[in-house]
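Readers of this paper often ask what the protein records in our data store actually look like. An entry from our holdings is shown next, in its original layout:
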Amino acid sequence: MKRTPVEIIQAINQVSAKKGAIAAQKLPSGDTVVTFSNPTTKDWHTKNNQWLQQAFGNQAREACRTYTVLVKGLRRADLQGTTEEAFGTAIGLRSIDRVKFRLPTNPGFTRATVLVTLENQEEARRAYDQGMIWNAQILDCEPY
């Protein structure tokens, strides 16, 4: 069912105990961005998301903004036997959403990169500014 932004906002405010949805934007992907009246109301809706399924259906889920960091300078050999999950745990960041190794396909290249997707903008900014520590190495990072 295709709903207008007005219908979406009405549906959210009908099922939400806190109300406060003021705008909706349909994205080309089919997702909907909802804007709330203030940060307190937004935070409440993030923590109490039962309204989401009631307004959008059981398949609905909240997506949060992520920040991807490109970790550079890893030796390919150092990553042997390390899983993406273990790498993510070892770097000690709290808001990791995803880790993806980017290993070179050319056997002559010895360096690899890693994409680390974070949910916290401050952690991403710290990684850009200070690098990440893994296996006693400081690794340079940049926004991806």
Q: What stands out?
A: Residues 5-56 form one domain.
